[in-house]
Amino acid sequence: MQLTDMPVRHRRAVASSETAREINRDILLHAIHRHQPVSRADLARLTGLQPSTVSVIIGQLINEGWVVAGSLGRLPRGRRPTFVTLNDRHVTLAIDLRPGKANLAVVDINGKILGRETVAFEIKAGSTPEEARAAIAHIARAARSLRATYSDRVFQGLGVSVSGRVDQRTHRLVFSPNAPWGQIDLYAELQQVLDTPIEMENAANACLVSERWFGNFGDSSNMIAISVSEGIGAGVLADGRVVRGKDDMAGEFGHMPLEETGPICGCGSVGCWETFASNRAGLRYYHELAPESTLDSFHELLELAVKGDIRALRSIDKMMTYLARGLAMLAAGLAPEVIIIVGDCTALWTRIRPLLESQLIAKSFTPHTPRVVAAMDGDAARLRGAAALVLHKVLFRQTDFGLRHEHEGKRTGSKPVAAHV
Ligand SMILES: [Zn+2]
User: Fold this and answer.
1) pLDDT at 4
2) Which one of 174, 299, 302, 323 has the largest count of C-beta atoms within 10 Å of its C-beta?
3) Threshold 0.85, pTM exceeds
4) 329 C-alpha to ligand 1 centroid (Å)
5) Class of domain 90-209+380-408
6) Distance 264 CA to ligand 1 centre (A)
7) What's the gap in Å between 18 CA and the centre of ligand 1?
8) DSSP string spanning 239-276?
9) What residue ranges of the chain are covered by domains with CATH 1.10.10.10?
10) Do β-strands 154-162 and 198-202 pair in parallel, antiparallel, or remain unpaired?
11) CA–centroid distance, residue 194 to ligand 1 (Å)
């Protein structure tokens, strides 16, 4: 973790001793996560904190049940240090809400998916609030059953990843053009069945948090996650903070007007980036090339492309050309170090990666083009992202990547569990 992860107010002010303790606690949690199993001496070396400070904070974390002292280390001589790890009894429920299906999972504190299932439903943009409510009740009951099968674990809450934008003050979906969830109080419907703390976020933002906590880019302060599915969503981490904008609406680059004309978008406009670069666009390009085809899902299109079908490949290439065009705009405007692509299209990564990178390089005005990487299992990335939202809220006191609103006040952490389990 870098100092730039801290909210600005903590960098410019003289930190109170409590604030300093909390920052050190966050730093140690990150270090344990990254290097576990790890000894207290190594933690002191890795973080630059005093060994005595490390011991006091580790003692607290053990008492709170977040950390367990486990196996003994092996040194050639001298005493054998005790290694500490995060306590993987802590888990969260995760729901990734997609048009037509919801993926559910139980995810532990290290991002390991312990159990997973999918609930399918017939819901689309034009569905009624009653239909949406019935689908959510169905999903919530399935999540409750999944939770019950892991009753030996300590559940910290429910993380929900959605395609729209969520106003974190009201917990309402403020923008969800491709699904009807905005018509109902999703948060209240889930709360009613599951009775647990809930964090709800845009899927791309959730993936950013997941990359910071579970992924390979824990030290990167400038990242963009692009979720490519029925639409296109973006999550932007700039200078260590998730960009939120007014009413948490930032990141809707999918509705950036790329062309003057084109198909009508779910938002009501025309020419939006997502009408040219989403899964639906890929499918449309295929039907333009193969009007006789009855193929009706992006999944089937991908299967054809993987088999080498030339028209399927050309459709995906066209979709990627448009994806790259939008990415070049984002790269020029935001200077990310990494762009993470989340979506089914990454099944063809060896083909699409060079295409995206070459276009980014061609349009770049600096020699520093961002790395383009794939969250290879897009479903897992979104589920881990949903879980990471909850973990961040309960684990960290000062590190929030801009996810916490000022009005939420201070986090109190979660219920501690027995230290030795
Ligand atoms: Zn649009």
Assistant:
1) 45
2) 323
3) no
4) 17
5) alpha beta
6) 8
7) 46
8) TTEE---GGG-TT-GGGSB--SS-SBPTTS-BSBTHHH
9) 3-86
10) parallel
11) 33
Give just the sign of the alpha carbon dihedral 222, 405, 213, 244. negative
Boundaries of CATH 3.30.420.40 in the chain?
A: 90-209+380-408, 215-376
Kindly give the distance from the C-alpha atom of residue 226 to the centroid of ligand 1, in angstroms, as a whole number: 16
- Cα distance between residue 302 and residue 16, in whole Å: 55
Task: Please state, in angstroms and rounded to a whole number, the distance separating the CA atoms of residues 294 and 300.
Answer: 10
**Could you tell me the distance, in angstroms and rounded to a whole number, from the CA of residue 91 to the centre of ligand 1?**
36
Q: Who contacts 72 (Cβ-Cβ below 8 Å, separation ≥6)?
A: 80, 81, 82, 83
Instruction: With CA atoms as reference, report the closest residue to 159 among 359, 392, 352.
Output: 392
Task: Kindly state the tokens that stand for 4.
Answer: 């730039």
Q: How far apart are CA 375 and CA 378, in angstroms?
A: 6
- 205 alpha carbon – ligand 1 mean position (Å): 19
The CATH fold assigned to 215-376 is Nucleotidyltransferase; domain 5 (3.30.420)
Tokens of 126: 């034009």
Taking the centre of ligand 1 as the mean of its atom positions, its distance from the CA of residue 126, in whole angstroms, is 16
Integer Cα distance of 55 and 50 in angstroms: 9
| Rounded mean pLDDT, 235-246 | 89
State the distance from the centre of ligand 1 to the C-alpha of 275, rounded, in angstroms.
7
Which residue in the block uniquely carries the two structure tokens 């770049």? 364
Yes or no: domain 3-86 corresponds to CATH 3.90.1150.10 = no
Residue count (the chain): 421
Tell me the two tokens of residue 175.
């923008």
Give the pair of three-digit tokens for residue 16.
């109170």
Distance between Cα 249 and ligand 1 center (Å):
14
**Residue whose structure tokens are 């969800």:** 176
Q: How far is the CA of 373 from the centre of ligand 1 (A)?
A: 25
